[in-house]
Structure formats: structure tokens, C-alpha cells
Write a structure and sequence with these properties.
Blueprint: E1 2-4, E2 7-10, H1 13-25, E3 30-35, H2 41-53, E4 56-61, H3 81-90, E5 95-97, H4 101-104, H5 122-125, H6 130-145, E6 149-153, H7 157-169, E7 175-179, H8 199-204, H9 207-220, H10 226-240, E8 244-252, E9 265-273, E10 278-286
Parallel strand pairs: 2-5, 3-4, 3-6, 4-5, 6-7
Antiparallel strand pairs: 1-2, 8-9, 9-10
Helix pairs in contact: 6-7, 9-10
């Protein structure tokens, strides 16, 4: 085990499980923040929330190959190991788990996870197998770290919905804590992929959030027709960005089912493809 000024950095499954088991036997609570690294304020907000609610904070940094499709950006996914360590420590992480792919998957999996609900809409529609990979790695991490609470950002609200389903269906003894989207001053949702935006695209990118705000204003003024709400957001995106709209969709949340009329909890989610970066954002309505 390496120790960086109080924060333990662990690279093996055996060691992370031993630390977690010892803490659980001592009656300590563990908050867990799973990430793929290249940490930004969104990730750090998760760690800071975990810090307030648990005795110990664990974070994992692992770019999980199982959740990348054959034409996706696994190799070029941004990485910054040294910067991540410093940021994690500053955010109050006690134990940082950074395994290699060979450590996490020493042999081919003999049991495959298959997510069958909440995946055929939004980003999941064009990423077959993505959430299967998410479910597989989280199942391993939850077993290794034994967290009382696990923290996920609502920027990827579909992932939160899938993880909540996984935990509910398989009785994992862990509470899933969704945390609100952390934004730049101009409203752009923080993302590891924002670094790929050109200067001109970066100026347009805040219009994603503005489109959601305009739609939200319509809802506050009484609009309940999903098609009209979608149209409002889509029109703003078409007018104010040169990116290609991947989707603008509205569903019940977290079920991610179509709705005829806005009621209860719903999500309006958008994705826009710029030249080298695909950005997502969303807003959740409570009616």
C-alpha cells in the first residue's frame, strides 16, 4: 500500500477488500465514489458529500473497458493519474483504489450481467452493452468495498436509474445517493469530455442548459404536453448551436418510460454531438 500524506492508494482487489472488511468490523461507515478518473468538480462534489455522511470515503478510478463499445473512445478517454490523486486527497478521500484492467478482470467473466430495463432510451439506445459493463464493474466494486452509501452524479441520470435498479433487484446492502449536476459559471455541466470542445463550441455549449431552463419555465407556467416541452428545448438548440442534436427526450423518472402528460417525476434529457465531444445534460421535473 502506498500512502500519500494520509490518503491510502491501493491497486489490488485483495488489499482494498481487506481494508474495507477491517473498517466494517470496527463499525465504521463507508461512502464510495466510483469514477473513471480525469476528476473535475463534479466528482469532487460527490466525495465532499460522502465526507459529510460517512466515517471513511473510498474512491475508485478505473476506466472500465466493459462499458465501451468497439467504436468508442476507450483509448482516448482522458487520463491524469497524478492530478487525480491530488484532487482526491484535497476532497477528503481516505482510500483511493486504482486497479488495472488485468487486476479487475484477471480472467474472462463466466457470468455476464445483462441490464434489461431503463437502457433502450437516451444514451443507452446507441450504446448496446454499455450498461451491462457498468453493472458488472459496480457489482465487483460493491462486493470489494462494501459501502454503506455510493454516490453518483445526476448528469448521467440514466446511469443513476440503472444502478438504482441493480441495487433494488439484487438486494445490495448499499444506499444509492444521487447528487445534483455541478456546472461551470455559464451553466455548462462539468464533464471530462469538455476538454475536446473547440473554442467556438465551448461558447455554444452553455446553450444546452439554457434550452432546459426555457423548457422548465414553460412547465412552471403550466405546460404539461411532453411533445411541446421537447419542441421548446429542441428549437433552442437548433437556433443557438451548430452541434448535431442526438436526442431531446422526456420520460418518467427513474422508470424511463414514455408519458402522455407530465405528472409526478419526469426527466427531460438532451445530447448534442459536437465535432470531437458529445455532451449530455438533463433536468428533472417534480409535478
Amino acid at each position: 500500500m502506498n500512502t500519500a500524506a494520509g490518503m491510502k492508494v491501493v491497486t489490488t482487489r485483495k488489499e482494498i477488500q481487506a481494508i474495507a472488511t477491517k473498517l466494517k468490523k470496527e463499525g465504521k461507515s463507508i461512502g464510495f465514489v466510483p469514477t473513471m478518473g480525469f476528476l473535475h468538480e463534479g466528482h469532487l462534489a460527490l466525495a465532499e458529500r460522502a465526507r459529510k455522511e460517512n466515517d471513511f470515503v473510498f474512491m475508485s478510478i478505473f476506466v472500465n473497458p466493459l462499458q465501451f463499445g468497439p467504436n468508442e473512445d476507450f483509448e482516448r478517454y482522458p487520463r491524469d493519474a497524478e492530478g487525480d490523486r491530488k484532487k482526491a486527497e484535497t476532497a477528503g478521500v481516505d482510500v483511493l483504489f486504482i486497479p488495472t484492467s488485468e487486476e479487475m478482470y484477471p480472467h474472462p467473466l463466466s457470468v455476464q450481467m445483462k441490464v434489461t430495463k431503463r437502457t433502450d432510451v437516451l444514451c443507452g439506445r446507441k450504446r448496446p452493452g454499455h450498461f451491462d459493463g457498468v453493472a458488472a464493474v459496480l457489482t465487483k466494486l460493491f462486493h470489494l468495498i462494501q459501502p454503506d452509501r455510493a454516490y453518483f452524479g445526476l448528469k448521467d441520470a440514466q446511469q443513476v436509474a440503472v444502478v438504482e435498479g441493480l441495487v433494488r433487484d439484487y438486494d445490495f446492502p448499499v444506499e444509492i445517493v444521487p447528487v445534483g449536476i455541478v456546472r461551470e459559471k455559464d451553466g455548462l455541466a462539468k464533464s471530462s469530455r469538455n476538454v475536446y470542445l473547440s473554442e467556438a463550441e465551448r461558447k455554444e455549449a452553455p446553450e444546452l442548459y439554457k434550452s432546459l431552463q426555457i423548457a422548465n419555465k414553460a412547465v412552471e407556467e403550466g405546460e404539461r404536453n411532453p411533445e411541446k416541452i421537447i419542441s421548446i428545448a429542441k428549437q433552442h438548440l437548433k437556433t443557438h448551436t451548430n452541434g448535431k442534436i442526438d436526442y431531446v427526450e422526456l420520460y418518467s423518472y427513474p422508470e424511463l418510460q414514455p408519458v402522455a402528460e407530465l405528472r409526478g417525476r419526469s426527466i427531460l434529457a438532451i445530447a448534442v454531438q459536437f465535432e470531437k465531444a458529445r455532451l449530455i445534460d438533463n433536468i428533472i421535473f417534480e409535478i
